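User: Sequence in, structure out. Go.
Assistant: Echoing your sequence, followed by the structure tokens.
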Amino acid sequence: MARIKTRTAKDGTARYTAEVRLKGYPAQTATFKRKTDASKWITSTESAIREGRHFKTTAAKKHTVADMIDRYLSGANLTKVQDEHTGLHLRRWKDEVGYLILADLNVDVITQVKDKLLNEDVRGKSRSPTTVLRYMASLSAVLTTAVKDWAWLEDSPMKNTTKPKAVRGRVRFLSDDERERLLNACKESSNKQLYMCVILAISTGMRQAELFGLKWPDVDLYNGFLILHETKNGERRRVPLSGQGLELLREHGKVRRLDTDLLFPGIKDPLKPIDLQTPWETARKRAQITEFTWHDLRHCTASYLAMNGAAMPEIAEVLGHKTMQMVKRYAHLSDGHISNVVASMNEKIFGGV
């Protein structure tokens, strides 16, 4: 027998207490903010009891997946950039299986969500295995914390879950002709910020969120550098400015808006960063640039640095990477550049023979 009781909490919102009573077993209860979650919990709990999976550790029976995720997010101290990824991933896990008690979170449940993520249509194509791996890694970090720090679980079910095979990292960067076409298209765009933002992205290697979130107090136009406080790895980064990017920013600073600290505020809401998705796509199509995203501008930075003799540690410092592994993927060289290096070597060695 199962039932759901409704009550009103102190804040005026509804609470739904689900109760499951099966003959020969102690009664089980759990409270939820949504009735649909309470119904899902009843179905899951009844099945778990009948299959002998329900009665595990007290903490695993007491807390739900949503409880675990909420506690983790409240103490994780994620940066804004990290929250765009980890927070997004965990909110999706919460929507999918948040109603489950931890005792019922197993390999099969995780696999079902994994398969759903892999097969979903995202902007006309399936979500990549690499992206799904990131979703799984975010949940894995929470489960590990629940095991080691809180003793809510005896072990993480993620350990035995088969991971999708990651695809090789993208190595797309613009040729000289493509770069010229794209920059011309950006310069001709009706959006006056697009050209400057693309120039800055290529010349500094900043991520889109880092660039659009820049504030004037963190920019030193006289000495030519800026400070990023919100980065993906959680560490502050000093970014040098020079050349055309610096000159454009100096001109931009002469006509800055006074109702916001953002360098690139939104048109409708100056307290939110600008959204360049539409003008960017328009310029990219006008320039006939295919299979190229805004993030690939970072690939351009790393590749151009490598082609101009920058060492791996130098590239890592510019891009804000802690390890050399990611730099190896970004700092690839074009076939043409390698050919030139080989030709130069042969000329020096055998040129006089």
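User: And one key feature?
Assistant: Confidence is low (pLDDT under 50) at residues 330-334.
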